[in-house]
Amino acid sequence: MTVRLRPAMASLPAYVAGRKSPGAVVLASNESPYGLLPAVAATIGRLTSGVSRYPDMTATGLVEAIATYHGVAPEQVAVGAGSVEVVGQIASAVIDSGDEVVFGWRAFEAYPIITTVAGGTSVKVPLRDHVHDLDAMAAAITRRTRLVIVCNPNNPTGTAVGAELSAFVEQIPDDVLVVIDEAYHHYADPAVVPDALLAFRDRPNVVVTRTFSKAFALAGLRVGYCIGASEIVTAVRKTQVPFSVSGLAQQCAIAALGDEDEVRRRCALTVAERERTAAVLRELGYDVPASQANFVWLPVGDDAAPFAEHCAGDDVLVRPFAGEGVRVTTGLPEENDRFLTLAESWSRRPLS
Length: 352
Ligand SMILES: Cc1ncc(COP(=O)(O)O)c(C=O)c1O
Description:
The protein folds into two domains: 7-30 and 261-347, Aspartate Aminotransferase, domain 1, CATH 3.90.1150.10; 38-257, Type I PLP-dependent aspartate aminotransferase-like (Major domain) (Aspartate Aminotransferase, domain 2), CATH 3.40.640.10. It contains twelve helices and twelve strands. The chain has helices at 38-47, 60-70, 83-94, 110-117, 134-139, 164-171, 196-199, 230-238, 247-257, 260-283, 304-312, 333-347; strands at 25-26, 77-80, 100-105, 121-126, 145-151, 177-181, 206-211, 224-227, 295-298, 316-317, 319-321, 325-329. The strands form three sheets. A seven-stranded mixed sheet has the order 2-8-7-6-5-3-4, with helices on both faces. Strands 9-12-11 form a three-stranded antiparallel sheet, with helices on one face. Helix 7 links the parallel strand 6 and strand 7 (206-211). Helix 10 packs parallel to helix 12. The site of pyridoxal-5'-phosphate (PLP) has 13 residues, from helix 3.
């Protein structure tokens, strides 16, 4: 007799992590290229001996620091081991077997995995011109819908929806939860992309997720959080794996919140480099949708995998989505130049 797994496991897609290779230029995982924030490096030096003990399970200090940073009550903040876990906690809190989760596609590849693991059904609404089609998403909501996820800016296209998000949220029934995943918020132009924490502060069915993995350069320590109405946050806290955010991660995230000037400075560098990269790519003839994140999207279709191999051949790792396109994280200027040289040689390759 063999152990019986849930039937859904057979079709569960595996999360594909960006490639890593010693010495390579890694532009495949949307990480910060600048290393630890100075305040975080100092915190790690001080705290290493504490890792022999369990951390504060409720992450009180971190929750309070996040609440102060955003001007909300601590009861409105829940944390998890990365915002991917927080989205999973949210799904666990609202999804029952067969419930529907509506999201644009393609968006963050963890959404269908999280949905299936929670026992739900993914309703993938195709993007229009690489941007969330909010009208189609609203039309996709049924009586079975319990959760709607808007990835803004969107991974992997980098595109964002603007003021039209408000009218969309207004249309969502009060008993359906809307998650606005703002993992890339710091790289977005505030004149174009709404800050959902400000725009939807008073909407009890909106939860906003953020991460320390991108602009705060803490991807390896695993901290993310959500902000929403306290009734929802209480449920999201219940579905967290106990102690999933280590003490070191909690303290480093607090230190990172205090290094805001350095975070802003680095983000400005990344945005300038992103725009430079996109401009050169467009001159080379690539279609590059406007990005509001720390990466650009090249919708090269069937060329995605061979393009990525072409780059990997010179130790530059980018993230292909077979048959669709390639996502290229914005790195340091010299790293971006290495990539652009490869993009140029690819565009000039002889037609076979
Ligand atoms: C849109 C989006 N949300 C969430 C995450 C998860 O980030 P983390 O779990 O590292 O906080 C990512 C990571 O790539 C992402 O692209």
